[in-house]
Design a protein that fits this description.
The structure is a homodimer of 478-residue chains.
Chain A: H1 9-13, E1 20-24, H2 35-45, E2 51-55, E3 61-62, E4 65-66, E5 80-83, H3 90-100, E6 104-107, H4 118-134, E7 137-139, E8 145-147, E9 163-170, H5 173-185, E10 190-195, H6 204-213, E11 219-224, H7 230-240, E12 246-250, H8 255-265, H9 272-281, E13 285-287, H10 290-302, E14 311-315, H11 318-330, H12 340-349, E15 357-358, E16 362-363, H13 369-380, E17 387-392, H14 403-416, E18 421-425, H15 431-446, E19 451-452, H16 455-473
Helix pairs in contact in A: 3-4, 5-10, 6-7, 10-16, 11-16, 12-13, 13-14
Chain lengths: 478, 478
């Protein structure tokens, strides 16, 4: 396959890094919508090293920066512009940008095809036409724009400064925020993220093509609501999935959801079944919520392709592990019965006073360090185990106190099942353990383990991941 | 229907309150299993006002209490006894109890029919026989026992001291702990909870019958793994469901889960379909995880029976609300299109610069207080709304800052839909908001709103709750 160049690759490359960014619509009136000011706050917070030019007819100052009364007043060249002015003013703004030699802008403003008033649709058509005429490329409108921590791009104060190799596109600003925030807690770090809204000019296809060729991106995630050109998306995905894994959450699948999509990004959601078949044929890993999207991306980062679906499920708390057993099997993994001699040895190892179950799931009472060590020794000797699911239950009895030897057990056991061990921690559900749970989760992810909230979610995600890896392996090489 | 008396009602009534509790198996050796000592710790922590008698051959002291070398040595009468000694010693212990006039004991010890060794099964049969011969009633073995905060019964340090009207039975100790801990965070307070383990003597049926007649219990929840006498359970449920709502999570439904049940409580799990049909016919509200069990009980406490399934879903964050829209409809509720005149008025109310969606879901940007007030006014005027689902998204933009007016909106809107409003807060997913989220959740529950983690869970629970209330209303009155 020829190494095609993304049509706007050069333009995007010119803003990573950008030397200067203008933000238009920076009102000083606290009663007014804060859009523009929040972008300036975010870029300052992200320590954007280039020049920042806030623009607003009011003039004044922001963060010690002069607010220019108009774009024309800005003395220097501008690499990127963010617009937060009312919808209709974006048409003349595009012409001003062209005049100033600005090649790409992002329009945060809403009030286009997503509103019920037909004026919005007309305005968006005019915007598209003006973009074509002037050659200025537009991200949006009705979008949050770019988050690219390596290049100090941020759209909100407090977004993580660490960069990584996850590329992301999102038609929704709030869901892009979800991906960053929850993703960060699940060990996801981003190369470039584009929240692209109504996709009037630059569409999901443009961003996907760009990320497919971006050397800083190893895996691509996407939240898509509605698509204007389904054929092009299919072609694009078919072209890029042999290069990099792509995970897509296509939303708005119910009648109500599709109606909500229309008034969110002015797009048509399409039928669920059609999308499911199409995405599968394109070699995409499809998921069905933002949580699942984050989890799938986490697996690409922290789990090697599984060798099969046979897992050992281990943990403490009889009833808890039974619910997890049902969930693991319903989620698509197998829990094969342990060999008789291993079961017998485990039974001997454990004192009987507090129970235990040694068939798989392995439910052990973590009362003593030696027990854990003995268990690890017995279980790591096993062949034909593809996966380990290690459940941690916090707050019950002295299991929290025995956490340290249990964590050591996880380390020792996972050496054998290298990079194919997942941790399950049910949300703390109590003030006492809320922060502790988050910290534990973070330290486990830092140690390289994917962490899930429940066995159901772990099994569902891993089973899909396995199927995906099998499918990709069997794809004809292009 | 005759007001039948539970066969062991008098015995249980005699321990609520108990004047004295003996705990047998209180080792002083820190290397040893802590079972017995933890019970003493828990009862001291729960400020049990009666007398506590720790018993162990070692003698010594615990919390300033004398450790008696044997039960015979205890000078006074004992109302309740907790045993944490190795399995086989419980047979002679039962005879000692009979000699001392103790009518009911709880056996924490494991090592009975739940272990693979056939000795365990034999031992449990002997235990059952001895219980019958002596007339001493047994809770367990292999169980956590009783949590009844009003009577200062507790099985673990740190369990909430507040009592309420939720009665609970659980074959699993760890799941009873889950119900207390997560339940507490969801506003559930308990009258009496029984973790009953292997159910050798007293079974789920005995506890259900007791709770059905307990004036301090208004609703009953149950976690059941396996049942020895299915016929009796069906008869019991059929008898009690016309008196009080009963919510059951029957686990161990997969082949692996059923295998795990056998080695957890020595019982047979049975097939999923059979149970589903049977529970339904008995007038039980069936759920499929501990989380759903807690949520269903929460609805009985904080939501009146819904008048129908038509909801308004309101929140902020376009993409987030679209996922929630799909989840609400897939969960079984309807989101009818708002009347045209209301939509038009909402559109006029909102500035267009930041978007919004007014068809249902109602996605509004919480940038201004007046907007919220106007929205509330328009939406509370609506007829034919059965339910409100109010989604709160934390941490994104200034929506967190605008939380106070939004909470006021929730209050104002829910006045019309009195006690039929549910709140959806997605888990915080960040250190910054973890504790804040828990506190917000707690304050909303304290204000009388059920709170859910996602629209899927809210809609699934409420839809089932509605169906249950309809079914019960149509039941022939007994």
């Amino acid at each position: 396959m020829p190494n095609s160049t993304s049509p706007f690759k050069d333009i995007l490359d010119s803003i990573f890094p950008a030397r200067s960014i203008a933000v238009v619509g920076v009102s000083n009136d606290p009663g007014k919508h804060l859009g523009g000011r929040e972008y300036v706050n975010a870029l300052v917070d992200a320590r954007f090293p280039g020049k920042l030019y806030p623009v607003n007819p009011s003039g004044g100052e922001l963060h010690g920066l002069k607010i220019y009364k108009s774009l024309q007043e800005v003395p220097d060249p501008v690499d990127f512009l963010i617009s937060a002015i009312p919808a209709k003013y974006n048409i003349p703004l595009l012409r001003d940008c062209a005049a100033k030699g600005i090649k790409i802008i992002q329009i945060y403003s809403a009030g286009f095809s997503e509103i019920a008033d037909p004026e919005g649709k007309k305005l968006e058509e005019e915007l598209a036409r003006t973009a074509r005429e002037t050659g200025v490329r537009v991200i949006g409108p009705n979008c949050m724009g770019i988050y690219a921590p390596k290049y100090n791009f941020s759209y909100r104060v407090g977004l993580p400064p660490e960069s990584g190799s996850v590329g992301f596109i999102s038609q929704s600003g709030s869901n892009s925020f979800h991906a960053i925030r929850d993703g960060n807690l699940k060990g996801l770090y981003f190369s470039k993220l584009f929240s692209y809204g109504n996709a009037t000019d630059l569409t999901e296809c443009d961003f996907l093509e760009y990320l497919a060729e971006d050397p800083e991106t190893s895996v691509i995630g996407g939240y898509v609501e509605g698509v204007r050109d389904g054929r092009r998306l299919i072609d694009t995905l078919r072209k890029i999935t042999p290069k990099k894994p792509v995970v897509i959450y296509k939303a708005g699948n119910t009648v109500g959801g599709s109606r909500a999509v229309a008034s969110h990004s002015g797009a048509l959601a399409g039928s669920e079944r059609v999308w499911e078949a199409a995405l599968r044929q394109c070699g995409v890993l499809q998921v069905f919520s933002m949580e699942e999207l984050v989890e799938a991306l986490m697996l690409f980062q922290y789990m090697d392709p599984p060798t099969g679906k046979n897992a050992i499920l281990m943990g403490t708390g009889g009833g808890v592990i039974i619910q997890s057993t049902d969930e693991t099997i319903e989620g698509g993994l197998n829990l094969p019965l342990l060999p008789a001699e291993v079961r017998k040895s485990l039974e001997k190892t454990f004192t009987t006073e507090a129970g235990g179950s040694f068939r798989n799931p392995v439910d052990i009472y973590l009362g003593r360090k030696e027990i854990i060590e003995q268990t690890v020794k017995l279980l790591t000797g096993l062949e034909q185990t593809d996966l380990l699911l290690m459940q941690i239950m916090l707050g019950f009895s002295n299991q929290t106190a025995m956490l340290r030897p249990y964590l050591k057990a996880i380390r020792d056991m996972s050496k054998k099942i290298n990079r194919r061990t997942a941790i399950i921690i049910r949300p703390a559900g109590s003030f006492r353990y809320a922060n502790f749970t988050l910290k534990l989760q973070q330290s486990l992810i830092a140690a390289g383990y994917p962490v899930f909230d429940s066995a159901r979610r772990a099994a569902t995600a891993i089973s899909r991941y396995y199927d995906f890896c099998q499918r990709v392996r069997n794809l004809p090489k292009s």
